[in-house]
Amino acid sequence: MNPISLIGNLFHEVFFRPIVNILVIILEQLQLLGIPGSLGWSVILLTLIIRLLVWPFIASQIRSAKKMADLKPHLDVLKVKHKEDKAAMSAAQMALYKEHGVNPAGGCIPALIQLPVFIALANAIPMLFDANQLQKVNDLLYFPNLKLIAPPDPHFAGFSLGDKLIDKTPFVGEWWVLMLIPIITMALSFIQSKMMLPVKPLQVRKEDSKVAIKEKEGVEDTMGAMQSQMMFMMPLMIGVFSYQFPVGLSLYWNIFTLVGIIQQYLIAGWGGFAPWIKIIRR
């Protein structure tokens, strides 16, 4: 078996098939309770389950990012001290992180988990709406009593979870309502991105020379510009994806992000979004 097939089979068995089964189990339980919009609530509950599973990893990532922000004045000193020696700078930086228990790679774990889950849902949700693929869905289920007789009702909160905004005629009819979804997606993504930014003024010590101060200011300006670009570009990109994906997938993404905002606030506060909160409260 070639590596690509091996990875595909691994993804199928570790992510795709379990997610389909969990989604169907939740769906059928909600249907038994007679809850309207069962499929939408199933996506929400599945999202919450996934978010709870990755909660410890993301919490560790947030704490690590907060520590890194607190260490920034020390990093600025190291950058000035080792400005001519990148190897020494890298070694000193890693030593500083190790001393304070910071893992720069800690943020990779949640992303590594979320991405395959997102891909699995992107494939699973359209299958549930398609009567022609109902047998494929049933073949994925672990237990015979879980088999679906008919595709579930895709309607939830006035939307059809299988709809794609990109398939609608722009500026006509329900397009306006569906357009709210990528807007909400972008707004939530922007808030979360903004919260992840620390609010810290430029740290200047008395013993810093004028040259060092200018270098720090230059670094701050460059990093600030990059962060600002990313802060606006990422929500925009996610909004474009939301425009093209089924509503059900956007529902997953928005709930995942909303819980992420709550977690970020509980651990690190409003972060870079704090000034906006002050403006809103005026």
UniProtKB/TrEMBL annotation:
Similarity comment text for this entry: Belongs to the OXA1/ALB3/YidC family.
GO biological process: protein insertion into membrane; protein transport
Sequence intervals crossing the membrane: 7-27, 39-58, 108-129, 175-191, 230-249, 255-277
Pfam families, sorted: 60KD_IMP
Protein name: Membrane insertase YidC/Oxa/ALB C-terminal domain-containing protein
Top-level taxon of origin: Bacteria
Gene Ontology CC annotation, any one: plasma membrane
Major place of residence: membrane
GO molecular function, one term: membrane insertase activity
Keyword Transmembrane: yes
UniProt source species: Candidatus Daviesbacteria bacterium RIFCSPLOWO2_01_FULL_40_24
Cellular compartments annotated: Cell membrane; Membrane
Keyword annotations of the record: Cell membrane, Chaperone, Membrane, Protein transport, Transmembrane, Transmembrane helix, Transport
Topology relative to the membrane: Multi-pass membrane protein
InterPro entries tied to this protein: YidC/ALB3/OXA1/COX18, YidC/Oxa/ALB_C, YidC_ALB_C
NCBIfam families: yidC_oxa1_cterm
Membrane insertase YidC/Oxa/ALB C-terminal domain boundaries: 40-267
